[in-house]
């Protein structure tokens, strides 16, 4: 029974860190575009058998998961994101993970007992999430629901390259 509890706690901690990260992407979208409606998914892009949580224009579909994704639900209704908006969107996740690390790590020193330990673990999973997403690479197959997608770092790097190539072509 004790080991099962620990496994469930680890999965909940990972899911909490992923939710923080994906909400960072969603907030980046909402701040820079007044019409966008982001959706955050933990696990697959399915809405079935998930807790639905609405936070203003942001809708979250939450379950215990090892991956997450943020997407625009009304993409056909809005104008395409500018490069600046795309960079803010991509950077929002890693920034939220880094802030999550700082907040949960600091709070773990002031919260006693099990909650302090859980806070500490969420902090370190957030830090790991930051590094796993800020390094530029394509996600491998074992990242099931995001396999083949670009990490946030690679996505930002490609936007910057695209902007440089465009400015060279114009000049």
TrEMBL record:
Its cofactor is Zn(2+). GO terms for cellular component: membrane. The keyword Cytoplasm does not apply. GO terms for biological process: proteolysis. It is a multi-pass membrane protein. It comes from the Bacteria. It holds the Pfam family Peptidase_M50. The keyword Transmembrane helix applies. The chain crosses the membrane at residues 55-74, 86-106, 118-139. It comes from Planococcus donghaensis MPA1U2. Its main location: membrane. Residues 10-148 form the Peptidase M50 domain. It is found in: Membrane. This is Peptidase M50 domain-containing protein. InterPro entries: Peptidase_M50. Belongs to the peptidase M50B family. Keywords: Membrane, Transmembrane, Transmembrane helix.
């Amino acid at each position: 029974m004790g080991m099962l509890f620990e496994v469930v706690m680890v999965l909940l901690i990972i899911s909490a860190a992923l939710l923080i990260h994906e909400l960072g992407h969603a907030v980046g979208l909402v701040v820079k575009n007044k019409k966008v409606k982001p959706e955050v998914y933990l696990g697959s892009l399915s809405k079935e058998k998930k807790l639905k949580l609405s936070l203003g224009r942001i809708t979250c579909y939450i379950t215990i998961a090892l991956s997450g994704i943020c997407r625009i639900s009304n993409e056909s209704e809005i104008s395409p994101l500018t490069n600046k908006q795309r960079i803010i969107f991509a950077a929002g996740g890693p920034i939220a993970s880094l802030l999550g690390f700082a907040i949960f790590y600091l709070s773990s020193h002031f919260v006693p007992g099990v909650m302090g330990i859980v806070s500490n673990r969420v902090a370190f999973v957030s830090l790991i999430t930051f590094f796993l997403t800020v390094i530029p690479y394509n996600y491998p197959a074992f990242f099931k629901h995001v396999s083949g997608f670009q990490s946030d770092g690679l996505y930002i790097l490609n936007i910057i390259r695209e902007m440089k190539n465009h400015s060279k072509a114009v000049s």
